[in-house]
Design a protein that fits this description.
41% of the residues lie in helices and 17% in strands. The chain has 350 residues and is of the alpha/beta class.
Length: 350
């Protein structure tokens, strides 16, 4: 009795090449999202191993996509770092996601949200996105540089909502994180402060740092005030106590009256250092959240979510995908609010 020949599957090809089944499937279909080199590599191995598509599986797959295409081909995805928390407390990601859904529905799209932390790596997430039939994606606050280079995104409408955390060639929608430092310095100067310090996170891949530091220097010089060194916060959590002590020494050494900071971590370090705000130093947050009663610039994440959908819709309608030679940036303004963290200069340090 003749034995039945073993059928070579896409899984076998993927295993041999060390790539995902999605990559193999797209390569065999000559999909432009896969590089020409990888397509050639996959096809050469398929021929060598005697791969033949299973006609039953192919027919079922075609039927599935035909039946689902009316819904799935128009789905847009928002990728966030972590699961969006529930509860009544407002959250930037949740506000953005709610507006993203509402605007997508109004413009005839479906919407889905994915937390990057739920996946082992970007390839795994990409596989899910592909099988969901995602038409366009927007990702926010991603430190992983593979978001800037992954070949799968080259076939999609893509919007970068990363605020400069990694440099990309995608079109961007951002809250104004370039002019904000100038606004904060001007507000501090108008309040009568002279010793103004800028505190940033020590993240070498952040592409917006030069804009913030130059804006800080420019506006202090325009106000005739001394330029203090920029304090860089080290991000490792196990060094927070040491960072808090270092920040306190910095404040004392430079006789800092007001701190301008981008991240709530700085407020946490001030608490750890037992530096009283605003008694010992005033505090301006460049990314204040609703309900915090902090002086600073408040971000409208609802407007952000709407603008992201509008941009994705424009890209899809005009047939634009992947990166651009000259990416455009949509800048949304922030609202200045006086809270409880800005004292008068006479009371600071008193």
């Amino acid at each position: 009795m003749l034995s039945r020949p073993i059928r070579i599957s896409m899984r076998d090809l993927a295993s041999q090449l060390g790539v995902s089944q999605t990559t193999v499937s797209l390569a065999l279909k000559d999909h432009p999202r896969i590089s020409a080199a990888m397509r050639s590599k996959v096809k050469a191995l398929a021929e060598k191993m005697g791969y033949v598509p299973d006609p039953v599986v192919s027919q079922l797959g075609s039927l599935r996509w035909k039946n689902a295409s009316g819904v799935m081909k128009n789905t847009l995805a928002l990728i966030v770092p972590n699961q969006i928390p529930g509860g009544r407390e407002r959250n930037g990601d949740r506000d953005c996601w709610e507006a993203f859904q509402e605007r997508a529905k109004a413009q005839g799209y479906g919407a889905d949200c994915f937390a990057f932390s739920d996946y082992d790596n970007l390839d795994q997430l990409v596989s899910v996105l592909y099988h969901r039939g995602i038409r366009g994606v927007a990702f926010t606050r991603m430190w992983d540089p593979s978001f800037a280079t992954h070949e799968w995104f080259s076939g999609l409408a893509v919007v970068d909502v990363n605020f400069g955390l990694i440099p990309t060639a995608y079109h961007k929608v951002q809250l104004d994180r370039f002019g904000e430092v100038g606004i904060a310095v001007q507000k501090a100067l108008a309040a009568g402060f002279s010793r103004i310090a800028l505190v940033l996170l020590d993240e070498p891949t952040a592409s917006d740092r030069p804009f913030r530091s130059s804006s800080y220097a420019h506006h202090l010089a325009a106000g005739g005030k001394e330029l203090l060194p920029i304090f860089d916060v080290q991000l490792a959590q196990d060094t927070w106590a040491a960072e808090a002590a270092r920040l306190k020494r910095f404040i004392l050494k430079h006789r800092v009256e007001v701190i301008i900071a981008l991240n709530g971590l700085v407020a946490h370090l001030l608490r750890l250092a037992k530096v009283h705000v605003p008694g010992e130093v005033s505090y301006i947050d460049l990314a204040a959240q609703p309900g915090e009663r902090i002086t600073g610039l408040y971000e409208d994440f609802h407007a952000l979510g709407e603008a992201v959908i509008d941009t994705l819709d424009t890209l899809i309608r005009t047939g634009q995908s992947g990166g651009a030679a000259e990416p455009r940036t949509v800048i949304l303004g922030k609202k200045w609010v006086y809270g409880e963290t800005l004292a008068s200069p006479a009371t600071v340090g008193g």
